[in-house]
Amino acid sequence: MGRLVHFEIHVSDMERAKDFYRKVFGWSFQDWSEYAGMPYFGAVTGEDDELGINGALMQRQGPPPETNQALNGFACTMGVESYDVTEAKILENGGKVAMPKYALPGMAWQGYYIDTEGNVFGIHQPDKNAK
Asked: Which of the residues in the chain have pLDDT under 70?
């Protein structure tokens, strides 16, 4: 055992965060606040027969990360069909570039962004021709 089965993204503004992840990645949300005892929304990231995991947005319990501070935690990376289309959605919906698109030669395109809540995340488009 030890396989990752769930993730939590800490957010300051729940509605803004839900809107961002819904518009950029197509996620849907289920209100689990009653069980968690705080604002907590399960994130459904895809169909059950697709590779990947579901997670949650939870109310941040302290200050958000400071701009340009080193990453202190896990960075989630989402697989995407089109890097450029996804990047445009991220930027249109209030996200910012943390590390621009780069090639993982012979494997994929990769890059990192900052969501509306100050969290770093990655996007990854498989492409054997990346260089």
From this structure: none
Phi, psi for 84 (deg, rounded to 5)? -65, -40
**Sheet with strand 96-104: strands edge to edge:** 76-79, 120-126, 108-114, 96-104
Residue with tokens 């990769």: 110
Decide: 25 and 90 in contact? Cβ < 8 Å.
no
**Environment class of 3 (CB within 10 Å of its CB; exposed 0-12, middle 13-18, buried 19+):** exposed
Helix and strand totals (H; E) in the chain: 3, 8
- Alpha carbon distance 117, 11 (integer Å): 6
Spell out the alpha helix ranges (H) of the chain: 14-25, 33-36, 83-92
* CB neighbour list of residue 89: distance below 8 Å, 6 or more residues apart: 23, 24
Angle at the Cα of 32 from the Cα atoms of 61 and 80, rounded to 5 degrees: 85
